[in-house]
Specification:
By secondary structure, the protein is α/β, with parallel strands linked by helices. Helices cover 57% and strands 10% of the residues. A six-stranded mixed β-sheet has the order 6-7-8-3-9-10, with helices on both faces. A four-stranded antiparallel β-sheet has the order 2-1-4-5, with helices on one face. It binds adenosine-5'-triphosphate. This is LOW QUALITY PROTEIN: ATP-binding cassette sub-family G member 1-like.
């Protein structure tokens, strides 16, 4: 079995070696160096040091592996170097010998995270073309983009699966697609967090071989790897071992065994050198970490760096790829304008929405089902003078349906989407404004269609007035409430995870629902100012007044008192409105307030999402205060 997989792996490596990336724009090589790098986090009252003044250098054209025992700080090092974690980091980072400008560096580097965050209902080919439109933009023709995409798919051996949607891809294919998407504008530095985790031996070998090939094109490729096999280990040009936040080895992969030998630690010939150095670093063979850190000077020593002379043919390839048409670093900005990004993202979101048939069907059935149930519960009550209060309740039930149904989907799906946006936004696929505008447009369209389906059932079944202006006004208020509720859902889900979002959303609705109807039925008697203020905080209140205004305002005729009823107390609409304290309601005022609330909620959602992706000083301060209060509360509780 081992033999077979080894053979397959070698075959894969050979075939990858034949791939080309000639159509990609050429970039200048970037060597990344770091001196005295530290990273600490606050844990309660104290701070925990994760990286302890380490040094190192990752060169262009080389594939670097960051190894180490679990919890040593590999991912943290990758996050800090990629600029993904900035707060709590110290030390100096240099690119090509110059101090790193983080803003500029983010344009140069791409970070492929451990999770395969892909759009599930989009095929590989579509995903690549969409990414090409976003990243390469209109600078090249559609035909040229196709060539670039085909070239990368071939290199990453994804051509056979190019018409398969991402949800159906194997683990290895998903990983390769993540890499392929980031290769599109040929970044000079690529960071990968554990690209082989979850892959079998052959898939891991294929993945690392292609990364080596990508590196050979003049890129700096750095990945953290969990216990690589001996064969996988041999692919790496450079190995950086982290042990308890310090550098325990920094040099050529082939130098690991001689390095350990110099420290009187002999790796048995049958042992995988990667396993051995990780075992030694984790203290399994005694306390040797200090010795290793001292020998390698916490990463400063270059002694083992060039232990083996690099292959000259590889050098040649590197030369060729970087010899002509090199674009400047500044060219690595967004490839498309905000308007183009909006259109491309909207197309992608529409595709996702339409292809998620099960979800669409579920939402549709739910709206039809609730439309029928609510309609039948309040059937024919629209003109019935003996049921005026029930009709009023129908308005309220309509609002609650229009609040919950659009709010729940973003609460459960958007937190995951935020992770995807994080990756794409961090890797500079698009601007957040374009994304948010496309997201709101796509969601709004779906919500409008579903709300109309719901209203198409309840309005006629409950015998509301069949006058066009009233129908339009009723629909406008319901749809506005649905949009606001959806925006609130998005704002909550922009900040919290699924569990907390799904808890907070419905809980938050309870006071909104209570405040919406508090004080109605007391006539024109004024409420205490505090209740007036609190009531005005619930957008549902404006929804309620808007619906009442839509159906009852300026209605001259009385409602019909059925024969079976002895007495109809609320036959006169004017009297009913007076009793409810709603005599002066104005549709346009309530609709106007709802529009303002809608705009505010959308701004809030955008602001929270932006802060989640790149928090500003004020937001960070609020978080620190929040954490401090939380810690205090926990401590006082103990
Ligand atoms: N925000 C944080 N708060 C507290 N501790 C943290 C935080 N981030 C990381 N750590 C700790 O820092 C150490 C290094 O974490 P890191 O994820 O970098 O390890 P790793 O080497 O990648 O581990 P693994 O191989 O298991 O993924 C761990 O002990 C982890 O618990």
């Amino acid at each position: 079995m081992e033999m077979n997989s080894a053979g397959a792996g070698a075959g894969v490596a050979r075939s990858i070696g034949r791939g080309h990336l000639s159509h990609l724009p050429q970039r200048p090589p970037v060597t990344l160096a770091f001196h005295d790098l530290t990273y600490s986090v606050r844990v309660g009252k104290s701070s925990k040091i994760i990286l302890r003044g380490i040094h190192g250098e990752f060169r262009s054209g080389q594939l670097t592996a960051i190894l180490g025992p679990s919890g040593a700080g590999k991912s943290t090092l990758l996050n800090v170097l990629a600029g993904y974690r900035v707060e709590g980091a110290g030390g100096h980072v240099y690119t090509n010998g110059e101090p790193r400008d983080l803003r500029q560096f983010r344009k140069l580097s791409r970070y492929i995270m451990q999770e395969d965050l892909l759009q599930p209902y989009i095929t590989i080919r579509e995903a690549m073309l969409i990414a090409a439109d976003l990243k390469i933009g209109v600078g090249i023709t559609a035909q040229a983009k196709l060539v670039v995409v085909e070239e990368i798919l071939q290199l990453l051996m994804l051509s056979k699966a190019k018409d398969t949607t991402a949800e159906k891809l194997s683990g290895g294919e998903k990983k390769r697609l993540s890499v392929a998407l980031e290769l599109l504008n040929n970044p000079p530095i690529i960071f990968l967090d554990e690209p082989t985790t979850g892959l079998d031996e052959v898939a891991s070998s294929m993945c690392v071989s292609l990364l080596k090939r990508v590196a050979r094109g003049g890129r700096t490729v750095v990945c953290s790897v969990h216990t690589p096999s001996a064969r996988l280990f041999a692919h790496f040009d450079h190995v950086y071992v982290v042990a308890d936040g310090r550098c325990a080895y920094h040099g050529a992969a082939a130098g690991v065994v001689p390095f350990l030998h110099c420290l009187h630690l002999s790796c048995p010939t049958t042992h995988n050198p990667a396993d051995f150095i990780i075992d030694v670093s984790s203290g399994e063979y005694g306390s040797h970490v200090n010795k290793m850190v001292a020998a390698i000077e916490n990463g400063r020593s270059q002694k083992w760096r060039d232990y083996e002379v690099p292959d000259s043919s590889q050098e040649l390839e590197l030369e060729q790829l970087n010899s002509s048409g090199v674009e400047t670093c500044k060219a690595l900005k967004h490839g498309s304008t905000a308007w183009q990004q909006f259109r491309i993202l909207l197309r992608r979101m529409m595709l996702q929405t339409v292809r998620n048939r099960r979800h669409l069907l579920l939402r549709m059935s739910l709206h039809v089902f609730l439309g029928l149930i609510i309609g039948l519960l309040f059937s024919d009550m629209g003109y019935d003078a003996s049921k005026t209060v029930f009709n009023y309740n129908f308005f309220y039930v309509c609002l609650i349906a229009m609040m919950y149904m659009p709010m729940m989907p973003p609460l459960s799906t958007f937190p995951r989407e935020v992770h995807l946006i994080k990756r794409e936004y961090f890797n500079r696929w698009y601007g957040l404004k374009a994304y948010y505008a496309a997201h709101i447009t796509c969601r709004t369209l779906a919500t409008t269609v579903f709300s109309l389906i719901f209203l198409a059932f309840v309005y006629p079944i409950t015998s509301q007035p069949m006058e066009l202006p009233r129908i339009l006004m009723y629909t406008a208020i319901c749809v506005a409430v649905a949009w606001i509720s959806e925006s609130i859902g998005i704002a909550i889900a922009s900040t919290l995870n699924v569990v907390n979002s799904v808890f907070l959303g419905p809980v938050l609705c309870v006071p909104l629902m209570l405040l919406a109807v508090y004080g109605y039925g007391m006539g024109d008697q004024p409420l205490p100012i505090i209740w007036e203020v609190m009531r005005s905080c619930s957008y549902l209140r404006y929804g309620m007044e808007g619906l009442v205004a839509a159906i009852y305002s300026e209605r001259k005729e009385d409602l019909v008192c059925p024969e079976y009823a002895d007495y109809c107390m609320y036959k006169s609409i004017v009297n009913f409105l007076r009793l409810m304290g709603m005599s002066g309601v104005s549709f346009w005022f309530d609709f106007g307030v709802l529009v303002v609330v809608l705009l505010l909620m959308n701004f809030l959602g955008y602001y929270l999402l932006r802060q989640r992706l790149s928090p500003n000083y004020a937001y960070r301060s609020i978080k620190i205060i929040g954490n401090y209060v939380k810690t205090k509360m926990i401590m006082s509780h103990q």
